[in-house]
Amino acid sequence: QVQLVESGGGLVQAGGSLRLSCAASGSIFSIAAMGWYRQAPGKQRELVATITNGGSTNYADSVKGRFTISRDNAKNTVYLQMNSVSPEDTAVYYCNADNFRGRNYWGQGAQVTVSS
To answer: From CA 37, how far away is CA 74, in angstroms rounded?
Structure first.
């Protein structure tokens, strides 16, 4: 089992920055990749960014150049640095972890609200 706890959400003005954190615990040795997804009201959950154990990253086109995913292996924590945010980035952001057997784990979600 893997437990994920997000933090760092909140209210930010358009053009501002925010950093989300996701702390992993439990069977962290089994994690192959971690990522961030988001779900806006009335929309489906969508990929934001992922990072593998080897450090390879992948981003949604909508956040490329503005968001950066990173990880601190010593702290078992993944971060999402969000810069130049816009109201379209308003959503609940979920941390995700995939293990080597293809099992998915999710955090409880962190609300990010961008005011115009």
So the answer is: 23
**Residue 60 main-chain phi, psi, to 5 deg:** -70, 145
Angstrom distance (rounded) from CA 112 to CA 41? 12
Contacts (Cβ under 8 Å, ≥6 apart) of 82: 17, 18, 19, 20, 63, 66, 67, 89, 112
Could you read off the pLDDT of 46-79 as tens digits, one per residue? 999 999 988 999 999 999 999 999 999 899 999 9
Chain length of the chain: 116
Whole-angstrom distance, CA of residue 22 vs CA of residue 95? 6
Contacts of 64 (CB under 8 A, 6+ apart): none
Is 90 exceeded by the pLDDT of residue 30? Answer: no
Tokens 């490329």, residue located: 64
Please state, in angstroms and rounded to a whole number, the distance separating the CA atoms of residues 36 and 54: 17
